[in-house]
């Protein structure tokens, strides 16, 4: 190793002349076999002719290039380097019959000074399933399993309005930019989920009523041509439907719990809902505790975050936001979040090494089985699909390793349960 400055390592490497000579011979054989050169059968063109055709320096450079991947593998293993990206390779002179000297500049993961987990106090919300929680959950389930029945009255909040509607988007001068012909759609009159302008227009309507409404499209709408413009809607009401909630009877219990619900009465149904709520709340409490632990351990650890990693994460965040419809995202707005993301990645990876966390075949098999159960397909089909996609399998492996690392960290910290809203 020549030098190391922060997380940049410079290493001098030498390719022995005999090894280089063998690789050069392979390259000439490969070119002679594949090149169609007038006057020579394939594989029979002499080196001088190949030099004239391809250039001797280019042939030597390509032969050396073939050797670099294995050379890099040896160096990263020998020096135990965790690379951030491919190294910069500098070569002064390439001459046949001589050793080739290379200077390799690696950007590696920086040193991390980890916080002492035994000194970290983690707060876990204390769960308490009340009768009100159970009643609210049952009411929510009844709404989700409600049937829709056509009614002969004006629409009200909570109803569903079936209407034909057409759309025209206009610019600031009222000129049409784009239009969509009438199509039938069911509008759920829930104030929290429907645009206020649409909600107000469709509450109180009856079949055959015609209504108009307009909405200003959000400035950050993904289609910049339409952002900030006015969308005008015309509605022709076809039906008004109300939700009819199911009774607390065996048919409803079966809808919620499947065959298990057949043997339930209302009391055992409520007990089962309470148990399900408790499990869900416990999972959320554990997740909150783990989040608190990660935040505190990352804050208390020290690492100089590489600019290159931050820049890459900024691009990842920007791409993700654009896919979600956000437009005109400024890099500077994302830098702080990217720095935090990279620091968290480096700190958790360092804890994983410190706690000797290893991903096993059993871990992957369990994840494959979980996915298979979720989709109702065979586990072998899931394995085959994932193993064909190297990026996806790496992503899953990293995610599982992080989960195991967080679990191992939670065993080292002090966990205190507190009621929500209690001072920390």
Automatic annotation (TrEMBL):
Q: Which GO terms describe its biological process?
A: 'de novo' cotranslational protein folding; cell division; protein transport; protein unfolding
Task: List each copy of the Trigger factor C-terminal domain by range.
Answer: 267-409
GO MF, one annotated term: peptidyl-prolyl cis-trans isomerase activity
UniProt xrefs under Gene3D superfamilies: 3.10.50.40, Trigger factor ribosome-binding domain (3.30.70.1050), Trigger factor, C-terminal domain (1.10.3120.10)
Q: Where in the cell is it found?
A: Cytoplasm
Per its record, the protein catalyses: [protein]-peptidylproline (omega=180) = [protein]-peptidylproline (omega=0)
Lineage: superkingdom: Bacteria
Broad class of the protein's primary localization: cytoplasm
Taking every annotated instance into account, which residue ranges of this chain make up the domain Trigger factor ribosome-binding bacterial? 4-141
Q: Which Pfam families match?
A: Trigger_C, Trigger_N
Q: Which GO terms describe its cellular component?
A: cytoplasm
Q: List the keywords (alphabetical).
A: Cell cycle, Cell division, Chaperone, Cytoplasm, Isomerase, Rotamase
What EC identifiers does the entry list? 5.2.1.8
The protein's matches in SUPFAM superfamilies, at most eight in alphabetical order, are given as: FKBP-like, Triger factor/SurA peptide-binding domain-like, Trigger factor ribosome-binding domain
User: What's its job?
Assistant: Involved in protein export. Acts as a chaperone by maintaining the newly synthesized protein in an open conformation. Functions as a peptidyl-prolyl cis-trans isomerase.
UniProt comment concerning the protein's domains: Consists of 3 domains; the N-terminus binds the ribosome, the middle domain has PPIase activity, while the C-terminus has intrinsic chaperone activity on its own.
UniProt xrefs under PANTHER family: TRIGGER FACTOR CHAPERONE AND PEPTIDYL-PROLYL CIS/TRANS ISOMERASE, TRIGGER FACTOR-LIKE PROTEIN TIG, CHLOROPLASTIC
Family, according to the entry, reads as follows: Belongs to the FKBP-type PPIase family. Tig subfamily.
Q: Mind telling me what this protein is named?
A: Trigger factor
The organism is: Dethiosulfovibrio peptidovorans DSM 11002
